[in-house]
Write a structure and sequence with these properties.
Blueprint: H1 8-17, E1 29-30, H2 54-78, E2 81-88, H3 94-102, E3 110-113, H4 120-123, H5 129-132, E4 140-145, H6 154-158, H7 163-182, E5 185-193, H8 196-208, H9 218-223, H10 227-241, E6 248-252, H11 256-270
Parallel strand pairs: 1-6, 2-4, 2-5, 3-4, 5-6
Helix pairs in contact: 1-7, 2-11, 3-11
Length: 307
């Protein structure tokens, strides 16, 4: 039991003693076998590969989205429970990837959990409680657009949680995820890694695009001055939560199109599935309507045809 008088260093020692085989940290796996550091403190590796062209991207995305529909039907038919966590720096491309995953799927099977700032009541609850409420039932896949890892990221860097709360999170998180997995839920965690140069470029694009300006929050502006602090928080978070039973998968996200394709392709490979034959393979002829006279179309109120 943690008390207000428990020193953070004591919590850290207790945490280390309580590690078991399946929640012991492991070396981070990466989608491409590359180091996650660049010169000058940049976070993702320097790649000479050109950015993906639109035609190639759209062709490959179409193929992957067809496979996602097959995966969805497999999840529904077999009662699987899937959670996919998307984390990363601001403007790293998490939302765009989630959008491409969900745009061809049934929202009753695949839904997004993007929680707002906790209410006063939620602040008094067990930290994981409001996230647990969004975990899937049988036949569902939930995509967390940010997750319980807020405590190890923005809350840690911006000072929104106490030191004791932070260390208690790092101590509890591997056990929480272990409980999720042992309950039958498939848990997959992605970290979208972006360089400071690319992040700044995307911030400027958001600022200059009226349709994207809403994405640029005061918190995003504050994060620009805390690049190193966020780097330290991410590295410490990985040190404690990149475990054998629930590893982090890092997506090189400087090229948004390649990042989306790589992430979706990897997600499809993480869950064994087969195509389920469709129930409806052809449509019967329409029946001719008889014996009903519809009211005059002029009695209806139409939207003005401005285009």
């Amino acid at each position: 039991m943690t008390t207000d008088k428990t020193h953070p260093e004591d919590l850290k020692k207790l945490f280390n003693r309580e590690f078991h085989d399946d929640i012991e940290p492991v070396r981070t796996k990466r989608l491409s076998q590359i180091e996650d550091t660049r010169p000058n403190g940049q976070e993702t590796p320097t790649e000479s590969k050109d950015k993906a062209g639109r035609k190639f991207y759209e062709q490959e995305l179409r193929k992957l989205q067809i496979e996602l529909v097959k995966l969805q039907e497999w999840i529904k038919a077999n009662g699987l429970k899937v959670v996919v966590v998307f984390e990363g720096r601001d403007a790293a491309g998490k939302g765009g990837t989630i959008k491409r995953i969900t745009e061809c799927l049934n929202p009753r099977v695949c839904r997004v959990a993007a929680l707002a700032t906790p209410t006063e009541k939620e602040r008094t609850q067990w930290y994981f409680q409001r996230y647990a409420a969004h975990l899937p039932s049988a036949g569902e896949m939930v995509l967390f657009d940010r997750s319980w890892y807020n405590r190890a990221g923005v809350e840690r860097v911006m000072g929104f949680c106490a030191e004791e709360e932070y260390w208690e999170f790092l101590r509890s998180c591997p056990y929480f995820e272990r409980m999720i997995i042992r309950s039958g839920i498939i848990l997959i965690k992605y970290w979208f890694s972006v360089s400071d140069h690319e992040q700044e470029k995307r911030f400027q694009q958001r600022l200059n695009d009226p349709t994207k300006r809403w994405k640029l929050s005061p918190m995003d502006v504050s994060s620009r001055d805390k690049w190193v602090e966020y780097s330290k928080a991410k590295d410490e978070m990985f040190a404690y939560t990149d475990t054998k039973i629930s590893p982090w998968w890092v997506v090189d996200a400087d090229d948004k199109r390649r990042a989306r394709l790589n992430c979706i392709s990897h997600l499809l490979g993480m869950i064994p599935y087969s195509e389920i034959p469709p129930v409806i393979t052809e449509l019967p002829p329409r029946k001719e309507a008889k014996g009903y006279v519809r009211p005059p179309i002029s009695e209806q109120t139409f939207v003005p045809c401005k285009y």
